[in-house]
Amino acid sequence: MANNPQLIFVNDIKPRKTACRIQVKIIHTWRHFMKDVGESLELILCDANGTKIHASCNKTYIAEVAKHVRVGVWRNIDHFSVSGAGGAYRSTDHNGLLNPNFLIDVIGQVQDLGDLETIGCNGGKQRQKLEFTLVDICGQRLACCLWGKFAENLHTASQETEGMVICLLRFAKIGQYRGEFQISNSYDASQMFVNPEIPEADEFKQRAIGDSQALTLAESEENKLELQMKRDKWMHYPQRNLRELFEETEEKLCRVVAQSMTLILIGDGCNNKKIQNLLVKDDTGESQFMLLDSIATGVVPASATTLLNGSWDELEEDDPFPEEITNLVGQTFMFGVYIQKDNASGGAIKLERYGKTYVC
């Protein structure tokens, strides 16, 4: 009769040592799909010493294994093989070199929460993106960027939470963006907890209600502006004047600061869209900007239906214009402009899919 496999710790696992057994807690699971390979079940396991290891189960055994690996339970596992950990972002550092390309856990107070953006990705897919800063108990700051459901969930939780928001990211990856370290979720492998009931989160709250050692929530306007400029991609493009726009012969992105003179509002009654022909000027001349769809919202946030009181009839000469439009005359805006070969015709610049407007 064969002896029972020897019970060992995760650190003692060797590639050629298969006649062994480990006792581990399942701390995370997720499904992964790869083209030409199919679906797999991925697991993060942790032994009594706190050592973690990544396990993977191919599609042949998923149905049987998935029933026994609920998160939080302890299991004895044998009959497994061991291979070298690889990939750009490993879920643990087991049997690997000291390298930043593995997933980490991080906790901090959410500050500098940006807007929930919709970004066009490869294949025409749209993904939600949210940038913010995590601040630890010592005041150290770390840039973060979440994608997809993680971005949506944190944005919603932050809107619904009064006071401090503490975020715990598990199995997050370390990257670099514009020369700075940045934390982001690693697809579905990551986990996120907002205001978790753990001692580390309680420590943040105690510091917040303490004396002069409490975390400072308010920042100077100068710091906020600097942070906004780092986050907003349009702030990294050169600024041009109106004359240079029409002299440009190559496609490029740039910014233009100009003062509004006259605005003509056109509403699409079927789709409730706004089209604004905005006559603007600067020191080099005048131009007409045609703002379509969401770009127009930066100038007039209200919908076309609201501005026209639900009527799509042409205004008479003595009909008053909406106050939201008349108030725009004389205001200065900064426009994010995508210069195309055909977007500057007849003295007009069209801002449709690409572009942005800022009130100066």
Automatic annotation (TrEMBL):
<feature type="domain" description="Replication protein A 70 kDa DNA-binding subunit B/D first OB fold">
    <location>
        <begin position="9"/>
        <end position="95"/>
    </location>
</feature>
<dbReference type="Pfam" id="PF16900">
    <property type="entry name" value="REPA_OB_2"/>
</dbReference>
<feature type="domain" description="Replication protein A OB">
    <location>
        <begin position="100"/>
        <end position="194"/>
    </location>
</feature>
<dbReference type="InterPro" id="IPR012340">
    <property type="entry name" value="NA-bd_OB-fold"/>
</dbReference>
<dbReference type="InterPro" id="IPR003871">
    <property type="entry name" value="RFA1B/D_OB_1st"/>
</dbReference>
<dbReference type="GO" id="GO:0006260">
    <property type="term" value="P:DNA replication"/>
</dbReference>
<dbReference type="GO" id="GO:0000724">
    <property type="term" value="P:double-strand break repair via homologous recombination"/>
</dbReference>
<dbReference type="GO" id="GO:0003684">
    <property type="term" value="F:damaged DNA binding"/>
</dbReference>
<dbReference type="GO" id="GO:0006289">
    <property type="term" value="P:nucleotide-excision repair"/>
</dbReference>
<protein>
    <submittedName>
        <fullName>BnaCnng11660D protein</fullName>
    </submittedName>
</protein>
<dbReference type="Pfam" id="PF02721">
    <property type="entry name" value="DUF223"/>
</dbReference>
<dbReference type="InterPro" id="IPR031657">
    <property type="entry name" value="REPA_OB_2"/>
</dbReference>
<dbReference type="GO" id="GO:0005662">
    <property type="term" value="C:DNA replication factor A complex"/>
</dbReference>
<dbReference type="GO" id="GO:0051321">
    <property type="term" value="P:meiotic cell cycle"/>
</dbReference>
<dbReference type="GO" id="GO:0043047">
    <property type="term" value="F:single-stranded telomeric DNA binding"/>
</dbReference>
<dbReference type="GO" id="GO:0007004">
    <property type="term" value="P:telomere maintenance via telomerase"/>
</dbReference>
<keyword id="KW-0238">DNA-binding</keyword>
